[in-house]
Amino acid sequence: MINKLRLILFSVVIVFAFTNTHFASESRGSDKDQSSLAKFLIRNYDLQEVPNVGSSDPDYVIVEFFDYRCGYCGKQAYDYAKLLESYKNVQIIYLEFPIFGGISETASKLAMNVWQQKPDLYFQIHNEFMKLGPMMKKNDLIQVLDENGFDGTSMFIKAESNEKNQIIESNIEIAKNLGLRGTPASVVNDTIFPGYIQLSKLKQIVSQ
After folding, report:
1. Residue 4 placed within a domain
2. Would the pTM count as exceeding 0.85?
3. Three-state DSSP class for residue 89
4. N- to C-terminal Cα distance for the chain?
5. In a domain, 107, yes or no
6. Is residue 44 part of a domain?
7. Which DSSP symbol is given to 106?
8. What are the two backbone dihedrals, phi and then psi, of residue 63, each rounded to the nearest 5 degrees?
9. Is residue 200 part of a domain?
C-alpha cells in the first residue's frame, strides 16, 4: 500500500513538474495565481465560485478535498479553523469531494447552495456539518440550515434531486487527476498531503 501511494505521488509530481515548466515558459511574470500547485489546481475557477476563507493575499494556499461523513475530515476541519485563528497569511479553498455518496453528496450540494446564497455563512455551516460526521441524518442537516436562517426543508429537497452540481463534478475530476482516493486530502502550496494533517504540523508549515 505504501509503495503504491509513493508511486501515485511520484506520478503526480512528475506530471505537475512538466506542466508547471510549460506554464512558466508561456506566462512568466504575468499571473501569480498559477504559481503553485494549489493555485494551479483551481486555475479554472473564479474564487467567487468555490468556498474559501482566510487571507485574500496569502503566503500559503491550502486546497482541501473532503467528505462530510469522513471522521478525520471533521478533525481536519477543527484544526483548519484553529489555524485560521492564529495565522493571517493562510487561505483555505474547500473542494467538496463526497466520495461516500448518498447523504454526503446531498450535504455537499447544500453547502454549495449556502456559498452561493450567503457566502459569509459557509464557514460556520461547513464546520457544523462536519460535527455531524458519519452518523449525519436528513433532519440534522435541515436543523443546521434552519438555525442559520435558511429554509432547510426546501433546500434539502432540491439538493436530494439528481441534478448535478458542476463545481462538485469538477472537484471530483481534479481529485481523480491527482490520484486521490480518500479524504481528507490537502494541497498546501506545492505539497500534497493525503490524509489528516495534525495542527502542530500545519503550524510548522505556515511558519516557514
Report:
1. no
2. no
3. coil
4. 31
5. yes
6. yes
7. H
8. -105, 120
9. yes
CATH code at position 159: 3.40.30.10
What is the rounded average pLDDT of the residues 25-44?
69
Per-residue pLDDT band at 21 (split at 50, 70, 90): very low
What's the rounded Cα separation, in Å, for the pair 29 and 93? 24
- Tally of domains in the chain: 1
Confidence (pLDDT) at 15: 42
Instruction: Choose among 172, 140, 141: nearest CA to 158.
Output: 141
Strand pairing report for 52-54 and 185-188: unpaired
| Cβ pair 62, 192 in contact under 8 A | no
Give the chain as a DSSP string.
-HHHHHHHHHHHHHHHHHHHHHHHHHHTTT-GGGSSHHHHHTTTS-TTTS-EEE-SS-SEEEEEEE-TT-HHHHHHHHHHHHHHHH-TTEEEEEEE--TT-THHHHHHHHHHHHHHH-GGGHHHHHHHHHHHGGG--HHHHHHHHHHTTS-HHHHHHHHTSSPPPHHHHHHHHHHHHTT--SS-EEEETTEEEES---HHHHHHHHT-
Give pLDDT tens digits for 157-201. Answer: 999 998 999 999 999 999 999 999 999 999 999 999 999 999 999
Q: How far is CA 203 from the centre of its chain?
A: 19
Range(s) of the domain holding residue 145: 38-206
> What integer best gives the mean pLDDT of the chain?
88
Single out the residue of 50, 44, 74, 80 nearest to residue 62, CA to CA.
80
CA 98/CA 67 separation, integer angstroms: 5
